[in-house]
Amino acid sequence: MKIMTKPVSKLAKNGYPTVHNSIAQNWTRLPLVAAVMTLVACGGDNAAFSGNNPDPEKPPEYQQDTSGEIQGPTGVYLFEETLADTSGQGNDAEEVGHSLNYSALGNISYDDQDGIHALSSAAVFDGISGLRLTGNVIASKDYSVSMWVKPSGSNQGPLFYGELDGNQILLNAEGLTVSGQTGQGAAGDEPVTYTSSDFQLMPNVWQHVAFTVRDGFVDLYLDGERVYENGTLFTDNHTFENDWKMETDAFADFFSMGGGTFAIGVTHSDEDEPFIGKIDNVRIYNSALYHGNITTLAREVVNEGPSADMMAQWVDPNVELDWTLERFDASSIHIVRSAFSANETVVLTEESGALSGDASSYVDPAPIGESYQYFLQATDAEGHVYESAPTEYLRVPGTEAYAAVSAELNESSENIELTLYTENMDPTTFDVLRDTNNDIADAILIAEGVTGDTYIDQKDDDFPHVSGTPYYYWVSVTDGVSGEVTTSLALPQASASAAGTYIPPGTFVLEELTDGFCGVDGAVENNNAGFTGWGFANTDNAENMGIRWRIAVEEAGTYDLTVTYANGAGDNRWGRLEANGVVLVDQINLISTGAWTTYETVSTSIVLEAGETALSMIAGTGGGLGNIDSLTFSSTTGGSAPVGVACSE
Ligand code: GCU
Ligand code: CA
């Protein structure tokens, strides 16, 4: 058998969907209780990640369609508890046993918790069953097959199989193998496998696999990346061992006369062990899709979990909330409020009862002076719960003296401009303190007796501020009448952003409940103070409990990763870090920090592939992990930092 491997270089920019840098929020809208400036670029290099940037190598024929609209599928199997073909061609699938020789013997079940889409189901292949696709699902010399697969363990079973007159194509974990009249070998029938070292299927994770055949040339894709590319085989004068050259005509015409047999999970041979695992959203086309189309299909599940966009406004004396809830069929909604300095969370709708699922506004009647965040908890008819990310902190004026400061980078002068905010005060002067962490105890006094309500922290030799470093500010305000001094509070979250080209993008802080945080085997909580962001991820106290994130980087390379955590237990609550289900760091030590309110950091470096990575940290001891406050990533090469990719579980 010939193995044809011709890895193609990975494409740098591959049509990522819009991703949001969670740091780039607009904080200056809101008078907060203290200020922080994080020097992070939100334009510049990250711009390559936004927009539905199609394949940069797209040919003119590229169909700029969404997955559902790519023209002409001849078979679409979404496995929503059915084997029906939803392409409109009537090529339904039917169960077979161990091979295509055992009609009506197999049993395909569905997992309604594990489809590729939120709240959708996938087909479960048990290792003794498969599917025959009825009708002429492929009857052309050009065709494409796109599917989502989640193999169990290291199982190598057939994914897609087609046969006509003894000519066969077989897609499995090895690649695409063609046998029959291949034109190879002395008798012209030596099988050929099209694959590359980049075609590695991972156990127990969803991956998108596709191949296209155009005029007898095969392209193979994994997760939207072309891992085997045949289009230039002859034009770049590539010569294989023994001057091998493919007889394209024979292969090109395998299926065009129609009447072939097509299967998922099995072949004609009783020798082939059927596939074990899950398969979802199989799409077959009687045309060769282009790379951009495949990328679109491979991105169909990104950014598609539930989302809620909530706005909070203070309309004296109430706080008015408005929201839109998408991709979640709520039957009831609760509104939750957390107060910054009280460090408490209240379900506002507890006593009055949940709102109806289609509610889109709520009035919080006259809350007391505080800085509040709001979020909603929606429940659907089947009991799934979706909790939205919290709003930014909203200041409701109180009756006591109160001071706060906001900070913003002036892009042209590169100075950081501070604005004072007070309540119930008659300020004369204020002092400004600055630090690179949010503990005022060791902050330095940078200005005294400032008048007015602004202060400019100039970038100069004394303050050559550094990209990627957060700068925290506090003000101590002296009341002109009472002489009383009021100092702004420590900060709940870093939320200022600085755009501009002069700052090399470098650092990304991934907080819970923002894009890039997918879930925790446990809960997101905020009862142990000292965290940044909304709170921290607290795993259940058992081995193998984990936290999952999803990030994307433009460039493959080494990145520094700093984990901020608290561990009030005495022992080392270490975890292992996995990327796409493969161990990346054996052991990240989360040694005791002495108290659950003491947060410390531990750093390691990790190697990331270009594109998206599903990260998980999994507890190595029976205590679970320490409480994880945030992950901070920075490029070691001056390249752009990772971004968080919206994900939900
Ligand atoms: C305490 C602490 C939690 C922590 C837990 C644990 O209950 O408040 O935040 O996760 O201990 O032991 O894991
Ligand atoms: Ca815990």
Structure description:
The longest helix is centred in the middle third of the chain and has 8 residues, at 291-298. The chain contains 2 helices and 45 strands. The protein binds alpha-D-glucopyranuronic acid and calcium ion (CA). Calcium ion (CA) binds at residues 538-539, 541, 624.
- Overall form: elongated
Bound molecules: alpha-D-glucopyranuronic acid, calcium ion
Quickly give the structural class.
Answer: mainly beta
Q: Nearest-angstrom radius of gyration?
A: 29 Å
The helix count comes to 2
Number of E-state strands: 45
Our estimate of the beta-strand percent is 35-45%
Helix content: under 10%
Query: What is the distance, rounded to the nearest whole angstrom, between the alpha carbons of the first and last residues?
Result: 43 Å
What is the average per-residue confidence, as pLDDT, rounded to a whole number? 80
Which regions have little confidence, pLDDT < 50, spanning 5+ residues? 5-35, 37-69, 231-250, 492-505
| Major sheet details | 8 strands, mixed
